[in-house]
Amino acid sequence: MVQQLLGRKGAARIALIPAEVLQALNEGLLATANLNEFLAIDLARLTRKVARDIGLEPRAERITDTLAMLGAFAPVKRHRHVARALYDLAEPRADRDAIAHALATHPSDVARSWAAQWIMFSGLTLPEQLRCVRRFAADAHFNVRETAWMAVRDELAGALDEAVTLLQPWVREPDENLRRFASEATRPRGVWCAPIETLKAQPWRALPLIEPLKADPSRYVQNSVANWLNDASKTQPEWVDEVCRRWLAESEAPATAYIVRRALRTLSASG
């Protein structure tokens, strides 16, 4: 049944999601196709099913208490609380590595995003966090990739110079998802996250991460770099204008022209 649901287009409204799709999503058998499917999931049902799948007790008090309080939080924040509850149950277990692997390889993108969030609770050093987050940054599903950069963003912001050094090899990776991660994780303003105040004031400190991407062949990466510069243009417009002029002078690639055009959209709108 699940096989025939793969490759579907997500419903335009939650009310239009077919019953068999919603059932498969709630059972953790299927990845979401769009935001509507993500929002439609019965989080309590999925949490207990995933807990059982990875070897945890689905009726454990820690899970029950967490599910009982989820209504007090915005939808995205609810997932962080679920991830934390699963982490707390697994952490003292001798087989925690096997549990973590089962979560990280689960068919549900939502479950894999919880695994990515475990990195936030791990107490690992920044190099170790980046090593662990790679698999999620390269995941085939957009939800997991977005969760991946959000999971380490606070650590990156708190050790910016180290982060820039550690991420420089990422922008030369063959995998466009890894290149995009380095750009998206360090956006001065970002989406669904707090801004990085240092980069709002001094965006040039992360230039080594976006400079190699100025003619990247991937539209996924191009959009991230353009958004990065557009973020920076709201606080350092002269610098962004200078970078864009230089890039156009150095590169005749259509990708560069596209990046610059999108990067300057806020400045162009303001004249």
Q: How does this structure look, described?
A:
The protein is mainly α and 271 residues long. Among the domains are: 125-185; 210-271. Helix content is 63%, strand content 0%. The chain contains 17 helices and no strands. The chain has helices spanning 19-26, 35-40, 43-53, 61-69, 75-90, 96-104, 109-121, 126-137, 142-158, 160-167, 176-184, 197-201, 207-210, 219-233, 237-250, 254-263, 265-269. Helix 5 (75-90) crosses helix 7 (109-121), helix 9 (142-158) packs across helix 10 (160-167) and helix 14 runs parallel beside helix 16. The protein is globular. The model has no long low-confidence stretch (mean pLDDT 96).
In short:
This protein has helices at 19-26, 35-40, 43-53, 61-69, 75-90, 96-104, 109-121, 126-137, 142-158, 160-167, 176-184, 197-201, 207-210, 219-233, 237-250, 254-263, 265-269.
Low-pLDDT stretches: none
Could you tell me the mean pLDDT? 96
Q: Quaternary status of these chains?
A: single chain
**Shape summary:** globular
Tally of separate helices: 17
Strand count: 0
Major sheet description: none
Q: Provide the helix percentage.
A: 55-70%
Give, in order, the helices and strands. Answer: HHHHHHHHHHHHHHHHH
Rg for CA atoms: 20 Å
